[in-house]
TrEMBL record:
GO terms for molecular function: DNA binding. Pfam families: HTH_3. SUPFAM superfamilies: lambda repressor-like DNA-binding domains (SSF47413). This is Helix-turn-helix transcriptional regulator.
């Protein structure tokens, strides 16, 4: 059987098209990924290491590493410590219609 390159985005869209549960799980994991990705980017842009964040936040370096890992869900308390230690703030805003429609 010859090797066939798969377009991941098309394959995901095809599978979630008729599976609302899969679509919900996919969208949630994408949001988690984007938040973690943004946190790590901002920390790096500020020139901070995980050890720096640990010292400022009172968390261990291992806890900081876990917060930055996709498959881990930190406690809200630890997440806030992390965010505060890098000088960021969390804002909660109502979703706009555009945001709702932009989901896969």
């Amino acid at each position: 059987m010859p090797f066939k390159k798969v377009n991941e985005k098309e394959e995901i869209e095809k599978r979630i098209k008729n599976d609302n549960e899969l679509k919900k799980e996919y969208n949630e994991s994408q949001r988690e990924y984007e938040i973690v990705k943004q946190l790590v980017k901002m920390r790096n842009d500020m020139g901070l290491s995980q050890s720096d964040v640990a010292k400022k936040s009172g968390l261990t370096q291992q806890m900081v590493s876990r917060i930055e890992t996709i498959d881990n869900s930190p406690t809200l308390k630890n997440f806030i410590k992390y965010v505060d230690s890098v000088g960021l703030e969390i804002k909660i805003v109502k979703k706009t219609e555009e945001m709702e429609c932009s989901k896969v």
